[in-house]
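Issue 218. Parser rejects a valid record. Input:
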Amino acid sequence: MIEAILVAGGRGLRFGGDVPKQFQPLAGVPLLVWSARRMATIAGLTRLIVVAPREEHARCQALLAPLGIPLHLADAGDERQHSVASGLAAVDAQTELVVVHDAARPLVEPTAVAACIAAARADGAALLATPVADTVKRTAGERVTATVPRADLWLAQTPQVFRADLLRRAHAQAARSGIVDTDDAALVERLGVPVRVVPSSHLNRKITTSDDLAWAEAIVAGFPHLRL
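Output the parser choked on:
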């Protein structure tokens, strides 16, 4: 059994206006729907758990019901980690693998999602990532103190996929220790469990600003096959 947690907890209005980021339209379709359609391609998916502010549950239900997949709404927390924990609490005890994905990554390729799931099935934990292409500088104030070798540096993305019991242990330890990390792989790493890196594409960019959204609009216009 596989369940997917789609994190759509943002209340921020970085794009201006009164529409939260996860509901911003990309080619006329909300980012949330784009990302949910990607999750719906997962072979053997038993349920999609969408984590969103409670006041947005009805809107999420209305947008995602047409996908025709089992759906559960969970309450978002103050931090992303707390939102994932809320979704994880709803995961069935019999579920083997949990896929965690950001609603703000609407263009992840289904083949990459499948590869990440296969890696997690083999190793217990996996994430999509792209190798760092730019030269990385460490600074103090406005001055460079070192150039960081980039050969073994990767930019983590989502989905991140884990054995359900492993992800539960990682979140439980973090809660006991008061640790808040920026992704779930970091919590699993704290258990001493290696996380496998699965190469991904720069198409799987996180939509954080209006510039990111403009980029995504241009990509979708140029590559209509990205629509699902």
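Fixed in the parser; the record now loads. Residues 110-123 form the longest helix (14 residues).
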